[in-house]
Design brief:
heterodimer, A: globular, B: two-stranded antiparallel ribbon
Chain lengths: ~290, ~325
């Protein structure tokens, strides 16, 4: 039993890596634009389907699909930005309806192009077992966990050190003050959408490499990403990492100890619990003032 | 007075003319009933959006809970269908109670929480097999009864029932809008802080709107269960019950009373007759496109443009 639980913890940890990438994209865009992109999960899914096409059509590894997927996903992300930035009034309500509509469009576009079938990778290397001491995983899980850690390190460096990264943080914390410092908030918003697209691309290819994809999965991904940002406390980047790992582990434990059908209930249970007990999330307490 | 005559004429035409013209055509009648079901959900969605200022992506939860509650109560307890439909509405109210803690939070929390919420009920309906019949669903749900010599379960009877339901809901909506609650909600739309300062309990008011909206939606869902006579989780909690009403409400103008219903009839009929014929799968793509176009080009709906052209003014909320 202990072994099972340890194994579930390990698998959940690996899964949490990709969740973090998805949630970080959502959080970045929310930071700069105060807009929740309800089509974000569909962007991730789009990358996954492009990886599928490259693998099944050309016989290449899903990894080689990353440049193409990044191009498509980032341009779609920029289109989402262009649409959202054109909203005239009631931005909070209308941006939700707009991105919901974009999500419906993307889901059905995927359905039209790739049909309703469920797909997963056929690469045997990706699915082969990787043994680390007493723990088992697929090669792809380890690989993409490593990629996620690298990307998060890169993102941290970018946000902390680079000009645009700091501009993103500045616009997130105080838009007007950032403007006075000579930051163009519009181009900063655009940058945040592009970075969200890059993160979504890697998460999507990872999803295809170790999991199964179907057209309706995009909405579920958006919800998971949102649950994570709420666990973290909106605006907290390290919180997102902890929230993602927490969700991954909670799901893995449920699958191991109860049933896989209840997997999605756990996230929601955690979510409601956090809303009841600490509505500002695990790491967002400092933002309560004012 | 002129307004009242118009309303009366429109009601008379809907009650008498539609069955007279299409009563023998089962295909058209079933389309009209389905459009009115969407209209009822759209109305409940618009009430929450317009009066409560909340965007819901989870009305499929209320629709499905209403449908399941009514079906189960009428079958397992043998209650008469009209009573079980009311209980269906109450079931949706109970379901909405779990959303109440989210109301304390501002911003997009509510929209996303309720989006996630709809998924929970689908999972529950699939997993709670002894009561809901699991993924196989429930069949042979009792139809609407015969009362006073008139068969409400017939095509025309069903049509009259859902039409009356929508009319009653619209009437209730109007009453809320004109009451002092409506005034407070309108003030809240301008500035929630200022409204709170003058002593309005804004969270309580929002909760009230959520409960009313859930009840309306659950009632319509319950009607649909007894009309279709069959339920399964993927149907009862389908995202169709979210997407179509939103498109309808936005298209017709969600800040007006008649907009959502007229929008539902227009959007549903065009979707079924035109888009579905052109592309059998993925025709919701067009609905998404419509939604995006409406938000960007005319967020107050097409009806409001038409109204402005004819010179009639309708205040928001």
């Amino acid at each position: 039993m202990t072994e099972l639980i340890l194994q579930a913890l390990y698998s959940g940890l690996l899964q949490g890596g990709s969740y973090a990438l998805i949630a970080l994209g959502l959080a970045l865009v929310f930071g700069t634009m105060k807009v929740i992109n309800l089509a974000h999960g569909e962007l991730v899914l789009l990358a996954a389907y492009i990886a599928y096409s490259v693998e099944s059509g050309l016989g290449w590894s899903p990894l080689l699909a990353i440049p193409l997927a990044m191009l498509v996903v980032c341009s779609t992300s920029v289109m989402v930005y262009l649409a959202v930035s054109r909203i005239q009034k009631d931005r909070e309500i209308n941006s939700l309806i707009l991105t919901y509509g974009l999500g419906v469009m993307l889901t059905n576009l995927i359905l039209l192009v790739w049909k309703a079938d469920v797909h997963s990778t056929s690469s045997s290397w990706m699915q082969d077992a990787f043994v680390l001491g007493p723990f088992f995983s697929m090669n792809s899980e380890i690989l993409f966990f490593g990629v996620s850690v690298l990307l998060m390190g890169g993102l941290w460096w970018w946000l902390a050190r680079s000009w645009y990264g700091r501009a993103v943080r500045a616009v997130s914390s105080n838009r007007d003050a950032a403007k006075l410092m000579g930051i163009n908030p519009r181009s900063t918003e655009l940058v945040s959408f592009v970075v969200a697209g890059i993160l979504a691309t890697f998460a999507g290819v990872a999803l295809f490499s170790y999991g199964v994809i179907s057209p309706s999965y995009g909405g579920v991904l958006t919800i998971k990403a949102f649950v994570i940002t709420v666990l973290a406390g909106i605006g907290s980047i390290p919180g997102v990492l902890v929230g993602a790992l927490l969700l991954g582990v909670a799901e893995a434990l449920t699958v191991t100890l109860a049933s896989s059908a209840l997997q999605d209930l756990v996230g929601m249970g955690l979510f409601l619990l956090v809303l009841f007990v600490m509505p500002n999330g695990l790491f967002g307490a400092k933002r309560r003032r004012g | 007075m002129k307004r009242n005559t118009q309303v009366l004429l429109a009601l008379l035409a809907s009650y008498a003319l539609v069955p007279l013209l299409f009563g023998s055509n089962h295909y058209i009648m079933s389309m009209v009933v389905a459009a009115l079901v969407i209209g009822g959900v759209a109305l409940s969605w618009a009430l929450l959006g317009n009066l409560g200022g909340m965007v819901s992506f989870g009305h499929s939860a209320f629709f499905g809970v209403g449908a399941y509650t009514s079906a189960i109560v009428s079958m397992k307890l043998g209650l008469p269908v009209p009573l079980s439909m009311l209980l269906g509405g109450l079931g949706a109210v109970v379901a909405s109670a779990a959303m109440l803690p989210v109301l304390r939070l501002r911003g997009p929390y509510f929209a996303l929480a309720i989006l996630a919420y709809a998924h929970i009920f689908r999972i529950l309906a699939t997993e709670w097999k002894p009561v809901t019949g699991g993924a196989a669903g429930i069949s042979n749900i009792p139809r609407l009864p015969e009362l006073l010599g008139f068969d409400f379960g017939s095509k025309t009877g069903n049509y009259w029932v859902i039409l009356s339901l929508v009319v009653v809901l619209a009437f209730a909506y109007q009453r809320i809008r004109k009451s002092h609650y409506g005034l407070a909600l309108r003030a809240m739309h301008e500035s929630e802080d200022a409204t709170r300062v003058v002593g309005v309990n804004s969270t309580l008011l929002k909760a009230l709107m959520l409960v009313v909206s859930a009840f309306m939606c659950g009632l319509v869902g319950a009607f649909n269960a007894h009309y279709i006579n069959f339920l399964e989780p993927d149907y009862a909690f389908s995202s169709v019950w979210v997407t179509l009403p939103i498109v309808a409400a936005i298209f017709g103008g969600y800040r007006t009373l008649t907009g959502p219903v007229i929008g539902a009839v227009a959007v549903y009929l065009v979707d079924q007759l035109v888009f579905k014929a052109i592309m059998p799968s993925g025709h919701q793509l067009v609905l998404g496109l419509l939604l995006v176009a409406m938000v960007l080009l005319s967020p107050d709906g097409l009806l409001s443009i038409a109204r402005n052209m004819t010179g009639r003014r309708h205040a928001a909320a």
